[in-house]
Amino acid sequence: MDARRLLLTDLYQLTMLEAYWREGFTATAVFELFVRKLPSSRNFLLTAGIEAALDYLESARFTADELDYLARTNRFSAEFLRWLATWRFEGDVDALPEGTLFFPDEPMLRVTAPMPQAQLIETRLVNLLQYPTMVASKAARCVLAAPGRTLVEFGARRAHGAESALSAARAAYLAGFSGTSNVLAGQTWEIPVFGTMAHSYVMAHDEEWRAFVEFARAQPDNVVLLIDTYDVMAGVEEVLRAADVLQRESIAVRAVRLDSGDVGAQARQVRRRLDQAGRSEIGIFASGDLDESRLAELVGEDAPIDGYGVGTKLTTCADAPYLSIVYKLQEYDGIPRRKTSRGKQTWPGAKQIDRITDRSGRWQHDRLALADEPRQGMPLLVPVMRGGRRTNEPESLETVRRRTAEQLDMLPEPWRRLEPAPPFPVQVSDAVQRLAHEVDRRHRHAAPHGPRHTR
Amino acid sequence: MDARRLLLTDLYQLTMLEAYWREGFTATAVFELFVRKLPSSRNFLLTAGIEAALDYLESARFTADELDYLARTNRFSAEFLRWLATWRFEGDVDALPEGTLFFPDEPMLRVTAPMPQAQLIETRLVNLLQYPTMVASKAARCVLAAPGRTLVEFGARRAHGAESALSAARAAYLAGFSGTSNVLAGQTWEIPVFGTMAHSYVMAHDEEWRAFVEFARAQPDNVVLLIDTYDVMAGVEEVLRAADVLQRESIAVRAVRLDSGDVGAQARQVRRRLDQAGRSEIGIFASGDLDESRLAELVGEDAPIDGYGVGTKLTTCADAPYLSIVYKLQEYDGIPRRKTSRGKQTWPGAKQIDRITDRSGRWQHDRLALADEPRQGMPLLVPVMRGGRRTNEPESLETVRRRTAEQLDMLPEPWRRLEPAPPFPVQVSDAVQRLAHEVDRRHRHAAPHGPRHTR
């Protein structure tokens, strides 16, 4: 499937589009994409997915077969479908650079474009930005929980589909992971790729030590041996036997891998046995049911583990598998707009985030202000697209990784802890608040048909 | 991204592959794909994703650019990479037809193929089968919770990527949903597509009733009006005003939509007001934060709601975003295999599931038996691929929907309830248990280097 297909959208985007087209609603709209509320197990979010979103906006077109399908549904006029064939995104986008930490109500992306362009992209834009941001945010928590450790993304198989698997590897890497087991991610973005062996490999051999020796001969530069197929401590003995054989062939065993049970307790036993046998050069790698909490436990108990594979719980964001992420109209035809449904109110107008820091660069608070207010701190949203074209080449992942690391350094306590913290202070500027009141007042005057004014 | 790319895999599949190739381990392997344990909020699983898995197996090849990348990693020998270029899946697959209910430890798919073919596909096969099965299972719970109601899959935007969005729409439909909002799913599988309007459409207009009128004129056959952008009961008055205008143009308002707050309470108020105004023909459609539990509540309180849009919580499987789904070696070169890691033991051998029913067809229990044992009930796994080719044309989604409906009819209490039930009885045949003991005994003899026999 071509991930840029415009039909990957909700039908209502197209029905609204026909209405806008029919009404001539082609004035400029400002939409902002933001998260309403953090999951209880997050103190911050980390931006990812912007590059994929820009790729989509630059290349999205209706294909002939898509237009044929729409015609067959008998829902749309032929003239509208002819117009759809010419649809392009030619708007402006301002966004948080990937690797930027942000908080609820802060726009991570703002679209300024003629209404029919700005509206149609909603479904896929949310879809492209939510998931990488979720994974990057959780991966950053893993990095904070296990500082300096080698962390590898291992979760392709249980990610929700192919795009998810691929995108998770990139998001984890930009958050500070050392690499991924996903080979396609390695090819696509030159992310370092890690791998060991599966239980099935050991099981296919009649003797465990022979499996180890054969594997090492085939992959002499990267010998990591999985020792928990049957019994861990018996597995260590098999490794020691294999290591002796391999040493005569100048092949070194780099590490053993634990993948089940209490890997902390096992690692201590395994470390002791390896050291006792004079094999302190063999490291220990652990995987299996890991997430940031388990990493913090293992690091806290000083488990002798050199690297971790973090899989399913990261790529499915198991403790918070979705965000209250929305794409909301803030202004149309120069007039600010605001939704007031219970519990879903939004701040109107095109906005900017100012980040206010102390002298050391440590963050004090953010300020949600209008885009054209005088700035009170570092503005976080930057121009990334003008007239439907990127303003700059895509950033390298290394640049994004450095930004993430700097941001995580500047994030103060208690937001860098795994434990839930009170909300990071985001002040709403007086101008934004005044605007919200004005919009409400205007709406009350314009809609005299509600029960407040029963005829 | 081409979803059939073989590099969408874990590196260890390729390192093991080189070892197998080098060792000449090309004998036949039997792998089974199954779920170890149900999430606490599931009493059954519903098979989906088989067709996509077969597409993958039929078409998976290494592309030239993939082989170039692998060469650049300097991890693999040139001769091995030349052999990889010829890799094809030419094995046999037996599987549960889509729309089959199944339980833990029961294989949903069995692969019989030369080891290097059977192993390489693991990562993507699990990835292709887990997610649709999860969504179909949760969607089936929604169908059981709201029997006879129109249920529409609405969750593309918060699904984890494009493939997830597309696959969720299909899985929900085969489980008994009436359709989806996802237009690409409509095009791909001719699934009925539903859509209304977004809050932004209402907000772009200065007056709510005018937004309604204009939308209806553009989409006269499908007028569903969203009434909670500002105030629900004021919104109803705007609908009534619009309905009067539209009536003169022979356009009927089909329904109103509620998308926030307590939709049950709101629906009662809205229903009363619509009826009082002589508009009983206007239905009520609800969405927003729905899942099977909320559906059961709304149905239980007899909320006057005609249809439901079920979104984020379904497409992210929010209460159970992954399964303990695994692909395990059961036999290699005619010898049964078994993993014995703590808590991860498997039943060895190529297996079949017999479903034992009473005279009315209602299920009594399942039996996990060897594939070549005499059958004691309806065998559930059927041949779907021989020699790398499908044995039959893909089933139509309508056929799968009928199977699901029949299976849900035959599923007895208490497993059809939303509340957690004790495990469905799955008996393990004597022959399987005997085989497990034999494998354990053989392994103990073959591995005399563990701590039990310290030298």
How do the helices and strands line up, and which of them pair or pack?
Two copies of one chain form a homodimer.
Chain A: H1 11-23, E1 28-35, E2 45-46, H2 50-59, H3 64-72, H4 78-84, E3 92-95, E4 101-102, E5 109-114, H5 115-120, H6 122-145, E6 150-153, H7 162-174, E7 179-180, H8 183-189, H9 199-204, H10 208-218, E8 224-226, H11 232-247, E9 255-258, H12 263-276, E10 283-287, H13 292-300, E11 307-310, H14 312-315, E12 325-332, E13 335-336, E14 351-357, E15 363-370, E16 378-379, E17 382-386, E18 389-390, H15 397-410, E19 426-428, H16 430-446
Parallel strand pairs in A: 6-7, 6-11, 8-9, 9-10, 10-11, 15-19
Antiparallel strand pairs in A: 1-5, 1-12, 2-4, 3-5, 3-17, 12-13, 14-15, 14-16, 17-18
Helix pairs in contact in A: 2-6, 6-7, 6-13, 10-11, 11-12
